[in-house]
Amino acid sequence: MRVHVVPHTRALKRRDLSAWTVVVIDAVRATSTIAQAVASGCRTVVPVASIAAARAYKRAHKGDAPLLGGERGGLKIAGFDLGNSPEEYHREAVAGRTVVLTTTNGTRALEASRDARETLAGAFLNLPVIVRYLAGEGHDVLLAPAGRQDAPVLDDVVCAGMFVDGLLESGEAALTSEAHLAHMAYRGYRGRIEQALRESASGQALARIGLGSDLAYCAQVGLLDVVPRLIDGEIRAKERG
Hints:
Elements (H helix, E strand, L loop, with lengths): L1 E4 L3 H5 L7 E5 L4 H10 L4 E4 L3 H10 L6 E6 L2 E2 L14 H4 L3 E5 L3 H7 L5 E5 L4 H11 L3 E5 L8 H17 L3 E2 L1 H11 L5 H7 L1 H8 L4 H6 L9 E4 L2 E4 L4
Helix pairs in contact: 6-7, 7-8
């Protein structure tokens, strides 16, 4: 199994993804929120890049009464039902519902990976179960940190490095130099995941707007047992045999 890591979404757009299983990582917070929504029984999550696209989807699917979720500048978008804090996406809020989600970085990365062999949404919250799934499938893995404003961020790189660590422990994995670098970043924060999130640009930005409590939640490793999979523009839980 080849394991590669790209630094941010813009780098993802430049690659032929057809042979790769891509794991999009926006630990603070989009893929953490997606994992929580799926674990809470959400019918489907529809990631879109823009606010206009989210509102257009809701107008076109009025009969399904989709919820609008997302953020700009870290804060809930005016007129939306939900923001981008994972704890908002509890069972009472989203079970059985479609959520249309747009975020500054994570949903753009998911859209950029639509042509991959398979696209998954990964975070610390569901990292162990995705590692087990990837190891069992044995296909080449491209870990795709979303980054922030088309630049790498510590939280996503450390999360990618923890994925690399898990794949190394699970069996044979041939790492690219970029995967080795991510692994080294993770090793520097082993056992201190929340600290990595708090030291990252993403985490500091959240703290400045009063949402620092999300970091402790997003730093929990293995809290959720779901593999969110993107197919035809919609994310649902991957059924595992």
